[in-house]
Amino acid sequence: MDIHHGRFTADIDGDFVVFLIGMRFNKPLQVSKWWPVFTAMPAMMRTIAQHPEIGCLGTRNWFGRTTILVQFWRDFESLDRFAKDRDLPHLEPWRKFNAAARKSDAVGVWHETFQVRAGEYEAVYANMPAVGLARAGRHVPVRSKADTAAARIGKAPADDQSTVDGY
């Protein structure tokens, strides 16, 4: 990824959804209990990447004892449709996990969903490659939106320079 020197922000048209999902290895040595959950994710990620018409705008994941996957979706309906569609690689692994989870606490899963209205978000990236929302939407110079965090999120006029956020 190329580093973009200077200050940039994210721009995305309309409302969108931020979906956080992850798993936690509660008992890491019980591989047979968490392996099926862990190995179900690549098929889901491939499907999302190969079919942008599903509605996922971008993803990013981190791995550790607790994993986290951040997804940006066009709308909640697209996310919900992906989760429930019998022909896509989510519903069946989810059903299997639910059945197995009742028998063991070796692995935990979690998710959080946030609906974001147009213009009610703020992002800044200094000397970074395009990541997160900037990768799901557009990566633009800060000056094209507003110079401060308060102005970018709509809590201050764009030309109000009384507060400098430093990034």
Written account of the structure:
The chain has 167 residues and is α+β, with helices and mostly antiparallel strands. It folds into two domains: 4-12 and 121-152, no CATH class; 16-116, Alpha-Beta Plaits. It has five helices and seven strands. A hairpin with a 5-residue loop joins strand 3 and strand 4 (68-73). Helix 1 (31-50) runs antiparallel to helix 3. The radius of gyration is 19 Å and the shape is elongated. The mean pLDDT is 86.
Chain-wise SSE layout:
Layout: E1 4-11, E2 16-25, H1 31-50, E3 56-62, E4 68-73, H2 76-84, H3 91-101, E5 107-116, E6 125-128, H4 132-136, E7 138-141, H5 149-152
Antiparallel strand pairs: 1-6, 1-7, 2-4, 2-5, 3-4
Helix pairs in contact: 1-3
InterPro entries: Monooxy_af470
Pfam families: Monooxy_af470-like
Protein name: DUF4188 domain-containing protein
